[in-house]
Design goal:
Length: about 120
């Protein structure tokens, strides 16, 4: 069976720190990153009226709304991001998007400028 996957990306900039790191660790100090988040929705069937899995514009709005909640803020202040790793960011975005997007199959959060990325497969 063929499976379609559609993906939309959004970007945000945010500060964070890892309070559990030892004194002197650069991760313990407040610092910032530019992030990219990608949300992937999969389906074996297409909406017959449109010929698509789902409207990428609607996925864009949902993803941007979630990313804007974090943009230019302190990640540690958000519930679930007290330890603000890429891994926890994936879970945070999945928790927000999954209710509205039951076909959500993957969340990728990356820091493109330093070539780091985490993928959560749902
Ligand atoms: N598995 C994970 N490991 C690390 C995460 C993470 O989210 N998941 N996060 C960090 C810190 O955010 C750290 O700031 C990342 O920076 P780093 O990889 O060290 O890259 P930098 O460019 O900021 O520093 P350089 O010294 O220039 O490499 C750490 N680990
Ligand atoms: Zn960092």
């Amino acid at each position: 069976m063929s499976v379609f996957e559609i993906t939309k990306a959004a970007t945000f900039d945010a500060a964070h720190h890892f309070p559990s790191e030892p004194e002197g660790s650069p991760y313990r100090r407040i610092h910032g990153h530019s992030f990219q988040v990608e949300a992937t929705v999969r389906s074996e069937v297409l909406d017959a009226a449109h010929g698509w899995v789902a409207d990428l514009g609607a996925l864009d709005r949902a993803l941007k709304a979630a990313a804007e909640a974090l943009d230019h803020g302190m990640l540690n202040e958000h519930a679930g991001l007290e330890l603000p790793s890429l891994e926890h960011l994936c879970l945070w975005f999945a928790d927000r998007l999954k209710p509205e997007w039951p076909g959500l199959s993957r969340i990728t959060v990356s820091r493109p400028t330093i070539h780091e990325r985490c993928v959560l497969t749902l």
